[in-house]
Hints:
By secondary structure, the protein is of the alpha/beta class. It is built from 13 helices and seven strands. The strands form two sheets. The protein has a five-stranded parallel sheet, sandwiched between helices. Strands 4-5 form a two-stranded antiparallel sheet. Helix 9 (about 240-255) links the parallel strand 6 and strand 7. Helix 2 (about 45-70) crosses helix 3, helix 2 (about 45-70) packs antiparallel against helix 11 and helix 5 (about 115-125) runs parallel beside helix 12. The longest helix is centred in the N-terminal third of the chain and has 26 residues, at about 45-70. It starts with about 30 loop residues before the first helix and ends with a helix.
Amino acid sequence: xxxxxxxxxxxxxxxxxxIQLVAPDGTPTTSDAATRYRxxxxxxxxxxxxxxxxxxxxxxGEFVNLQRQGELALFASCRGQEAAQIxxxxxxxxxxxxxxxxxxxxxxxxxxxxxAQIGAxxxxxxxxxxxxxxxxxxxxxxxxxxxxxxxxxxAMAAQRLGEDSVTVAFVGDGATSTGDxxxxxxxxxxxxAPCVFVVQNNQWAISVPVRRQMAGPSIxxxxxxxxxxxIRVDGNDVLACFAVTEQAAQRAREGxxxxxxxxxxxxxxxxxxxDDPSRYRSHEEVGQWAARDPITRYRTYLQSIGVWSDxxxxxxxxxxxxxxxxxxxxxxxxxxxxxxxxxxxxxxDITPDLVAQREQLSAELAKEV
Length: 369
């Protein structure tokens, strides 16, 4: 296989220029990367990627609206990061496991997880993670970086069972500053685990810019120290994200070990709905990245190759309306759950200590009625 999958580890360096197949103006690139990575996907796949990106953005906006209306406890927007998520997840097999953080709406949709299931998580329902694992998706991880260790553990298990599945850990740039991610990268490299680390470098770890998180030239350069390939990719180019992740997954599947993929993108909205990004970044910066919008770029590209059409746009619009309506129907006015149920899901048989704690909480809640 060309490119990453066939190159020996010793010869792999990290290029500072991110891999790009579609330029910001929507034209196909002519760089060396265009010869090393495939861009000639079937028309139906190209259209599917576009549909998935638009649906992700539309649902993201609906989730934000629901939170502002008091229907959700919190929400973490992925606006601007659709290409990185969709590209990385769309190239995988359905039996490959995804280990997300809390911003991967696009990846969830690709796996058939419904907006209502995602909404249940952000509404605080105890069953919010149910239904994820049936789709080979781990439950949303709110603690920063812990899912990377879970991904490596699952990859090592698949390795020892003789399976050819791959695990993908989605992390943010801030998570790479945690010990958990360091340990996950080290374990994966030492044991050549079939795991791909997709770092969505959206430039900000809440209010801390990426330039203040590390002294090295890039996040991808850290891969060299662990003994694995590191690749930088334009995270606003869905075709580049698809191609790079596809090759990394194939390399892992063939026993080549893990890869660290740094997708350069941008968080257009706040860190979560409780954040005010205007306190730490400028409108000029946001405007510069808005001009690189991944959906606008990709639509222009599809128009130039004759894949985009009014019919496609209408199909996407109709599906978006249906999914948003289903989400609102499932969330608006939904009954609150019984908080004491959380004690029942810790162990198969509830312990005496948990029984006592449940009774204490029930008594305290009864006083508030």
